[in-house]
Amino acid sequence: MRAERLIVCLFAAAFLAGCASRPINERIDQVDPMAGYRPHLLITKIPNNDHSTLFVLSFSGGGTRAAAFSYGVLEELRRTEIEVDGQRRRLIDEVDVITGVSGGSFTALAYALYGDRLFDEYEERFLKRDVQGALVGRAFNPVNWRKYIGGTAGRSELAAEYYDEILFENATFADLLKKPGPVAIATGTDLSTGSRLAFFQNDFDLLCSDLNKVHLSRAAATSSAVPVVLSPVTFNNYGGTCGYRYPPWVAEVDDPKTRVRPSGRAVQRYHDMQRFQNSAERPYIHLVDGGVSDNIGVRGVLEAIEELAASAKFRGEVGFGQYHRIVLLVVDSHSSPKTDWDRKERPPGMVVQLLQSAGVPIERYSFETVETMKDIAEIWKWRRELQVDELRLQGMSKAEAEAQVPEVSLQVLNVSFSQIKDPEQRAYLMNLPTSFVLKPEEVDRLREAAGETMRQSLGYGKVVREFGGTLED
């Protein structure tokens, strides 16, 4: 397996390469909730966009396999024409937010940076490049040993330098503030607590740090820092020193006696936020692959829904009242290589066990997360129907009752290998490795499979028709 060879090579490189001084994230003295890379500030500035719909893409992890499959989704959204307010547009222009972890974070961040230019350059710059081989080569290069000895940086910082050279061009999150496209949010996992830390200013407020100065390459390196294979990415924590105020939903879930339900995930997130604020005991935050805590990038969306439901004040602060529909398109690049382990008495070797023990629970949790989102969509419908029925019992007409209870629909779509109808094609993609190198034909088949799966999806077709569009054959 190519993934196994990567682990073996980088284990060796770990002993050869030391550490150098890492980039230092800058402190902020005072939180400014009206500035910085914040979704609720940026979404309203997206041109040619229906602001009554919140359209979120979620790109899973999975190395180049995930990067290519999610890129194929963007290509299909770009090909799909719709009609909004009597004007012909592309469905990709309706996308407001893209969350990404690990391999998916590269596509999310690169599209936010490049826009349509991505479709001319991404394959050559990243997808069809031997990124894995280049990283291993740099780790073994004696020139880099001298550079990475005696400090606090590691192999992931070396990777971030390479990502800047081939893809991100030293861009920072401040550069994204000037872009007209969707907000891209990569995620890392706190090695100590398992908490998520997302690369948007709301989360960096917890560290009292300025996200504007952080390079996109460092966010991508963090989100793809597979434990053991790559080193954690370290950030200075200044939390508790900049006048940070918890969002209004915290007051609604903090007291167990008066807690709004359901809010279990929101309560857990509040506890995570408290730990980030404790810089006296945690002056450094070590982050690894975002897929460890959320391999499909949906956990943050799930928590946000609970937080919005808990607090009307919070909904007002982020402008949630403008939305009548939320569309969440989950792009899951989970693979399931065929094995013969269960036919043999002797178990697989150590490296294979390491990969399997990390991947299986993550994928099971990912499946449950998507299903939970679908369940929430049905609960929203049911609750509105109950509220309308109660008002009608009080004497209102159906039209009056429905006007009193505005509808906010939640549509959850899933694009994954398991939905591919052709068994041969499905097996082929399921057996692709989790690595940062694929053959050009493998990349092309992933892209084509993404578009074909979307066109065959009844849920996706419904969304396109609701936007006044039609699907190509």
Description:
The protein is an alpha/beta fold and 473 residues long. Helices cover 48% and strands 12% of the residues. It has 20 helices and ten strands. The protein has helices spanning 2-16, 39-42, 63-79, 103-114, 118-127, 131-140, 142-147, 155-168, 173-176, 201-204, 216-223, 249-253, 264-277, 299-310, 312-317, 350-393, 398-404, 423-430, 440-456, 458-466, and strands at 53-59, 81-84, 87-90, 97-100, 183-190, 196-198, 233-236, 284-289, 325-332, 409-416. Strands 1, 4, 5, 6, 7, 8, 9 and 10 form an eight-stranded mixed beta sheet that branches. Helix 3 crosses helix 19 (440-456), helix 8 (155-168) crosses helix 11 and helix 13 (264-277) crosses helix 14. The longest helix has 44 residues, at 350-393. The chain is globular and about 80 Å long. The two termini are 36 Å apart. Mean pLDDT is 86; it is low at 3-19.
Short description:
With 473 residues, the protein is α/β, with parallel strands linked by helices. The protein has helices at residues 2-16, 39-42, 63-79, 103-114, 118-127, 131-140, 142-147, 155-168, 173-176, 201-204, 216-223, 249-253, 264-277, 299-310, 312-317, 350-393, 398-404, 423-430, 440-456, 458-466; strands spanning 53-59, 81-84, 87-90, 97-100, 183-190, 196-198, 233-236, 284-289, 325-332, 409-416.
